[in-house]
Amino acid sequence: MASSENSKVALVTGASRGIGAAVARRLASDGFTVVVNYSGSAAAAEDLARVIEQAGGRALTAKADVSDAEAVRRMFDAAEGAFGGVDVLVNNAGIMMLSPLAEADDASFDRQIAVNLKGTFNTLREAARRLRGGGRIINLSTSIVGLKLETYGVYAATKAAVETLTAIMTKEMRGRNITVNAIAPGPVATDLFLNGKTEELVTRMAKMNPLERLGSPEDIASAVAFLAGPDGGWINGQTLRANGGAI
Ligand code: NDP
Fold first, then answer.
1. Relative to the CA of 165, which of 84, 123, 124, 155 has its CA 20 to 30 Å away?
2. CATH topology for 9-187+216-242?
3. Helix axes 18-29, 217-228, angle to 10 degrees
């Protein structure tokens, strides 16, 4: 049930599916008005917005490929037009293409840089210019930055860069009462993680942490909700690894 006491607006990128959809649902139930960004999955995004509104929340869908700076600008314009401003940015949109460096092709390198790094840059730049005072920014990294597993090189490099942007932007927000943090999940049961993996590999990776299970999108949404909500206000410039203890 949405709380009428919270009139803050949260923009969640890549919110049509997976972790982003769980984050949008959770923030809406915490009382945030939610902008549900997507790039391709329009029907899923519309369904999610409907579910949020049926539960008494407020949601707006916004199509934008985060790698397109102009589209990101228009998305912030739309959010401001509809709700007067943005208070929370969750940079969740991301893609993962795995291969050993010897076999990595230029197209997959360029696309991961475009979505994961340039996409995060595009939204951070708009947030730096426009986020309301008291705002929160939460960037999605990955625990692979710490685990450094084979085949994850390019993907992990894009997320290491996101962690660096997080730390530097924290300082650039001085005086505005805006916190900037990253969450670095371990394996989470979504298309991004499950696609292309055998059941045996999924089971093995699930047991990398001592809780011996995959994370759920809701596990990560809970961590985002903490950083976005009243209890997370003193956490700033950190990367929180949400992975059941894998590293
Ligand atoms: P999914 O593949 O399940 O969902 C990805 C979401 O991102 C979709 O909503 C998709 O929307 C959106 N998206 C993809 N490309 C773009 C784009 N160019 N512009 C806007 N939206 C885009 O991924 P997850 O939910 O698993 O991952 C979410 C984040 O969490 C990612 O940043 C990922 O790197 C990170 N992460 C995930 C882990 C995991 O094990 N799942 C572990 C660690 C980190 P659409 O379909 O509309 O294009």
1. 84
2. Rossmann fold (3.40.50)
3. 50
